[in-house]
Design goal:
three-stranded antiparallel beta sheet, 3 strands, elongated, Arc Repressor Mutant, subunit A, mainly alpha
Amino acid sequence: MLLAEEPMHGYQLMQAIADRSGGRWTPSPGAIYPTINQLEDEGLVTVTAEAGRKLVTLSDSGREYVESRRETSVDPFAGFANAEAATDLRGLLEELHSATRQVARSGSEQQRAAAAKILAEARRSLYLLLADAPVVPDTDPGE
């Protein structure tokens, strides 16, 4: 559907999907590139090298495919259009990952042990949240 609008590189597709879904759906390269390969195998897209990057373009068969389903296809982004802005959990998780890596690399054994407790408690608290249980940490994160 996106390629019907214009040819794109894989990362452009990932960004377009993230933009249209309000950040709720951000596919990884491991999801996009195999999909592009499959579409190419099916003859629905052509992939050409442009300045060292692969440009994905709908083939004639791909345009026919999209056009033949235009009336009956559901817009995968329609559900995101009126949705409330989402909390960026992915960004927060990336920040947590960076901080954890820093502690693992340069923290003392005592700091690494404290970090392990904090991470275990965070995981536990998230599952309790899903279970609608009260989320009360067992330990003070500052310990």
